[in-house]
Design goal:
By secondary structure, the chain is an alpha+beta fold. It has two domains: 4-42 and 127-177, no CATH class; 50-124 and 184-193, no CATH class. The protein contains five helices and nine strands. The strands form two sheets. Strands 1, 2, 3, 4, 5, 6 and 9 form a seven-stranded antiparallel β-sheet that branches. A two-stranded antiparallel sheet has the order 7-8. The model is unreliable at 144-149 and 191-203 (pLDDT under 50).
Length: 203
């Protein structure tokens, strides 16, 4: 997903020989860690559409998915839906370059079980802030996480020293929590409450 040159640019340093040797492994671990934080796996779109199944819940009309690009083919219990029966969004954004939700115009009736979404999954270009998060998760694989031991503050009278003994995980969480929150689907239900004007499915 990221090349050695991209990692070095994002980290503003040359990779160590160990990092170069283990580049694929460290990247795989970094992406697995980020996937757990986001509740989806960040990937690059391939140009090939693949079908994925999602469950529904009665009285809801939004299905949150992994990011995809383009216009998907949406089937409800095997019946392909017309494009005007749903919209695609990046959370609430209708004009994104990628999307992560299908919003039906009517909410879902109780006998709708599954929705099949055939789409080009992933980002056309991985967002720069997510690339930076992956690079720093990669960096953590070769860093001692026990703390730096650097002096944070000191006092001359009644001599005392405070060490900045903060783990790399704590530094990461502090620095990138905003980016994680921006993309994460972990707090979203699979389908979100929708417009309840119509007490039935109008597929």
């Amino acid at each position: 997903m990221l090349t050695q040159a991209q990692l070095e640019s994002l980290l503003n340093r040359t990779l160590t020989s160990a990092e170069v040797t283990n580049l694929s492994l460290y990247l795989e671990i970094a992406i697995q860690q980020l996937s757990a934080l986001l509740c989806f796996t960040p990937e690059k779109a391939t140009g090939t559409a693949v079908a994925r199944l999602y469950e529904t819940r009665e009285g809801y009309r939004t299905i949150f998915t992994a990011p995809f690009v383009g216009t998907p083919v949406v089937s409800v219990d095997g019946v392909v839906q017309e494009v005007d029966t749903y919209s695609v969004r990046q959370f609430d954004n209708l004009n994104g370059t990628w999307f992560n939700s299908i919003v039906f115009k009517s909410f879902i009736y109780r006998d709708i079980d599954t929705v099949s979404i055939t789409a080009d999954w992933g980002f056309t270009a991985l967002p720069s802030d997510l690339s930076l998060v992956i690079a720093n998760l990669f960096n953590m694989q070769s860093v001692n996480n026990s703390g730096t031991g650097k002096v944070k503050s000191k006092k001359i009278e009644d001599f005392s020293i405070t060490y900045s003994d903060v783990s790399e995980e704590e530094r990461f969480n502090t620095q990138y929590s905003g980016t994680i929150a921006k993309y994460s689907l972990c707090s979203q239900s699979n389908v979100q409450h929708g417009d309840v004007r119509y007490p039935y499915w109008r597929g």
